[in-house]
């Protein structure tokens, strides 16, 4: 049995994490053909196929994903060794890279990742971006996890091939309510007490907005919309500072409700915002990630509606 060529493994690691053979070859100052040849030698020596080669595209096979997981550990240890020799002892930590959809509730994300802040053996990197950028980051194995309020497995904007790359785990379903200032709570029941109120609402592409529009139509209410915002953080700020009513999960304005600035007026029946953990389809994941997504840990955070 031939010994593992770590030089070839390094080349594989660079290509797998970058996703572009030409760019990596340029960065390493080698020809593209030489780089490709050395990766093939690694495949031959290990007797596995690491990439599916379709046209100019490179997609990791399941074996490739497994090898990449080991390669990441190997070269991370190499960086630790270099730091040890240069600066002294460095703590051994596991890095967990988490992408967060930019429109998600920051309060929910903060509560979810809170256990990682208490774990001295884990270093957490958080990145905020749009969904396309986050999924691209996972495709190139720059992210271990994406947190989203969109279920990519059923997202109509992604084709079937793209959807098959991912697996979504439902983390929680947060109820949605009408929220407003404590000093101005309507004295009459819905809809009469709400007809002259100003509203700050989620954008029209939001599932929450669609549900609210249907609710208003059922009660013959035409809300006076002062502003719209797709970003939950912005929706929170506008609701807090404008004096208008809004429709959002109370967890988004949890601090304001606890302080008495805002009040939950009325839960919307059968309306929820769902939060998902999106990972690449694989049979393995970092230990810290597996612990974070374990059902008991999630139940301690906030149970999924209907889950016992």
TrEMBL record:
InterPro entries on file: LysR_HTH_N, LysR_subst-bd, WH-like_DNA-bd_sf, WH_DNA-bd_sf
Domain HTH lysR-type: 4-61
Any coiled-coil regions, as ranges: none
Signal peptide range in chain numbering: none
Keyword terms: DNA-binding, Transcription, Transcription regulation
Family: Belongs to the LysR transcriptional regulatory family.
Protein's name in the database: LysR family transcriptional regulator
């Amino acid at each position: 049995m031939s010994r593992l060529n770590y030089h070839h493994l390094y080349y594989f690691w660079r290509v797998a994490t970058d996703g572009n053979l030409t760019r990596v070859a340029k960065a390493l100052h080698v020809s593209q053909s030489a780089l490709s040849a050395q990766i093939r030698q690694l495949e031959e020596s290990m007797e596995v196929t690491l990439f599916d080669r379709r046209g100019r595209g490179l997609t990791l096979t399941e074996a490739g994903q497994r090898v990449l997981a080991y390669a990441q550990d190997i070269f991370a240890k190499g960086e630790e060794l270099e730091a040890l020799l240069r600066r002294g002892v460095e703590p051994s930590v596991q890095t967990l890279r988490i992408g967060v959809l930019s429109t998600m509730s920051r309060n929910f994300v903060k509560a979810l990742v809170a256990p990682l802040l208490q774990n001295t053996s884990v270093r957490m990197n958080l990145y905020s971006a749009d969904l396309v950028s986050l999924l691209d980051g996972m495709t190139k194995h720059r992210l271990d996890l994406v947190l989203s309020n969109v279920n990519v497995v059923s997202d109509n904007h992604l084709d079937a091939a793209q959807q098959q790359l991912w697996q979504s785990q439902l983390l929680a379903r947060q109820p949605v309510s009408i929220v407003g200032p404590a000093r101005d709570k309507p004295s009459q029941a819905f809809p009469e007490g709400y007809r002259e109120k100003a509203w700050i609402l989620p954008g029209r592409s939001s599932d929450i907005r669609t549900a609210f529009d249907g609710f208003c139509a059922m009660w013959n209410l035409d809300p006076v919309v002062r502003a719209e915002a797709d970003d939950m953080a912005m929706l929170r700020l506008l609701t807090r500072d404008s004096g208008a009513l809004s429709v959002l999960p109370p967890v988004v304005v949890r601090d304001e409700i606890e302080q008495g600035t805002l009040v939950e007026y009325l839960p919307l029946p059968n309306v929820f915002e769902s939060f998902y953990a999106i990972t690449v389809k694989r049979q393995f994941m970092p230990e810290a990630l597996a612990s974070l997504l374990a059902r008991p840990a999630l139940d301690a955070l906030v149970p999924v509606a209907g889950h016992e």
